[in-house]
Design a protein that fits this description.
The protein is flat and about 65 Å long. With about 100 residues, the protein is mainly alpha-helical.
């Protein structure tokens, strides 16, 4: 059995493919939603400037936990928004085919 090359820390932690994939997905998202929705902008302290339900963040004292919960909230929000937009496009396409 041939000896396997031992990877360096730089090779192990190389996340360039992940970053490239993220950038491509972000660009696609921006192209698809530019005229439809404006995403919430982070405030200067890094926390989303929005009125999240107090029950979501509740009494959590840990800032990283609050941020995690808020990202979970927004992921669900945008998933639902995307589904609604896709359904509206499909219905519009069906109506234009009939009309």
């Amino acid at each position: 059995m041939p000896a396997q090359k031992e990877l360096s820390q730089e090779e192990i932690w190389d996340d360039s493919a992940l970053l490239q994939s993220w950038d491509e997905a972000l660009n696609e998202y921006k192209m698809n939603t530019a005229d439809q929705v404006s995403a919430p902008e982070p405030a200067s302290d890094g926390v989303l400037a929005s009125n999240l339900p107090q029950s979501l963040v509740g009494e959590a004292q840990d800032e990283s936990l609050k941020n995690l919960m808020m990202s979970w909230y927004w992921a669900g929000y945008y998933t639902g928004l995307n589904e609604g937009l896709n359904q509206a496009k499909q219905e519009k396409g069906k109506r234009s085919e009939k009309g």
